[in-house]
Amino acid sequence: MESNQTLKSSMMEETIVNGIANILSTITILSCLFLKVPQILYIREKQSAEGIYVQAMIMEITGAWVAQGERVPFCTPLSGFAKVTYIYGIIRAGNADAVSLTTWIISVATNLARVFTVYVDSADAKLMANFYISTLLSTGVLLTALYYQRNRTPPPIKCRRRISSHRRYSRND
Description:
75% helix, elongated
């Protein structure tokens, strides 16, 4: 009798966890459809895309295209490099005014949800590692953007090396 009760309890817990995973999967898919909308609206409102690197966007779009073909091993490096490039761009510009924090909060949340849903559905270690790394890098972009939006610093001044006056002109002049 007690083993039947334990079995029923275990099945109920599994059903609840699977239900939560299905709901999170649906929310994640819907969120990903609108992930860039806050970024687009933010850039439009600010009338500036300073701090957004074109290279990062190209890598991100390419990564999304690759992911559609279910070539996940190629998607992970592209997505990772895109996020690192976003971080680099923000730091280089010393400015994250054009970066929508909402977009990156959604990115972190959906990646965390994917870690959970993959664990529940298949416990595929490679996919879980992919989404875990993506979560860490999205968090890195979010924290970098947050820091630079609160502590705006001017970009580094590029100095030219001065040429001494005796080397400016050739002896034939």
